[in-house]
Amino acid sequence: MDIELRQIDDDRLISRLEVAGLxxxxxxxxxxxxxxxxxxxxxRHHRYRLRQGRYELAAVALQVKTEQQPADARQWRGQWxxxxxxxxxxxxxxxxxxxxMPDGPCECCAHYSxxxxxxx
Length: 120
Description:
By secondary structure, the protein is mainly beta. Helices cover 0% and strands 43% of the residues. It folds into two domains: 2-66, no CATH class; 70-120, no CATH class. The strands form two sheets. The chain has a five-stranded mixed sheet, with no helix packed on it. Strand 1 and strand 2 (13-18) form a beta hairpin.
């Protein structure tokens, strides 16, 4: 299956790559490394074509932003988050660490507190 990497702000084609199946295509909020660069996937669009009277998936266009994956990014409940997801102020997002100290690190934050919903 073909994947198009496109720049999010101007829809410029960055690169094309091939994957085995739809399950191998990254979802928004995941990082992707390709050609020595790191990208954050922001949107995913499916492109279909009509073939013999039926539509079939032809390609997937990923709207990406060139961004280095933060050192404190980690998998949490099936998604990427930046910082410590057990803190009640953590945004639990791959885009934003928290509202209190968005640049981090969590270890230096005076407002760090464990939430009632503990990280698993």
